[in-house]
Sequence to fold (223 residues):
Amino acid sequence: MKMAIYATYLTNYYGFKLKKATTQEEKKSLRIAYSKTLLSKLNLNVKVINEDKIPKDTQILLVSNHRSVIDPLIIEIALQNSNLFGHWISKKELYNSFFFGLFVRNGGAVLLDREKSNMSSFFSDIKKCTKAGDSIFIFPEGTRNKSDNDIGEFKSGSQIIALKNRLNMLPVFIRSNANEQLMSSLKDGKAERILEIEIGDIIEYKDKSMTLEEAYKSQFNLK
Fold:
């Protein structure tokens, strides 16, 4: 209960700070600070495998598996030494959330409203971000994977975004089951836990030799 109160306070505290930020550099710095502060409180440390594969300055569409609410924090820390700034594709529920809303709305996100029949405004918002020189971060499974499989089925939207905006894709794989680690930490936060995230090789948006899901699985040796 204490951790939930603290996390809510911290998220909204940084949400207010992000609202006042005037540059993407400020927002990136605040997002990293928030991620480090919360994961440190949980005694969760991030280990990045193949960090040298992260592009330093170019635009990308980052695609990642998704098991936990802390996955974006893990990714933010993994990218801290690059100049990449990405807008997260965020569900309507997060925009309106008491816990996440203020942070998401001000931190750099593109609203995905699945209830809308016309997605033109969604793709238009993405285009504005990429024209400004920013990257896009997405969980192609569309929702958290709660199964025993390594990843869930990828939706087609990621490849559409890549093609429409000519963004090469950077696959990242959170090898640790972050949700299990989070639950363990909430029960006993004294023990240090490591969250491993692996960086893959760039997938060119023009490459049609296989689907994104197939390419992703191939890179990380997933079934």
